[in-house]
Amino acid sequence: MALLAVACVLYLGNTFAQTNSDSLAYELQRTKINKMLAVRSQKFGKYDQSLSQHTGIFGLQTKKDIRRSNAILMDIVKTDNDIYKQLKILLDYRTFQQTQVADKSKEIESTNLHYMNTINTLRSQNEKLTKEANEAVLSYERSSRNFIVMLIFILIALVWRLWNRYNKKTTSIS
Hints:
Number of domains: 1
Strand content: under 5%
Order of helices and strands: HH
Number of helices: 2
Low-confidence stretches: 1-10
Largest sheet: none
Radius of gyration: 47 Å
């Protein structure tokens, strides 16, 4: 029984250690996405600032201003695409974790059922062996009792025979 408890503790320890590493990867991915969002926010601030810059005559935007704004906007789009990719990875981590938890749950449930079946089998075997041991003890007690009774009868018969011989000798002598 102690061996079973040790095995359960080791199994659960391994499960929790693996969960922690998966959670760490998930948290690292979240941190990465948050940093990317901060960079995107800075780029959007630059884009907003570039839209308000008018270096042309009479305060109008020049082609260069528009191109600079478009370049910043394209950079924001690339950053957004990278963020979407990282979000997909994050969601895949989450899906993987949920699948892993479900699989572990099924595995633990299956293991527990096997343990319960083994315990029930061992209990029934224990009851059977206890019953057989009790029957063997009763059989031994009966055999011992019969042996003692037979021994007493033999002793009585022997004493009776010796008594008869002694009486015959004493009656034949007198």
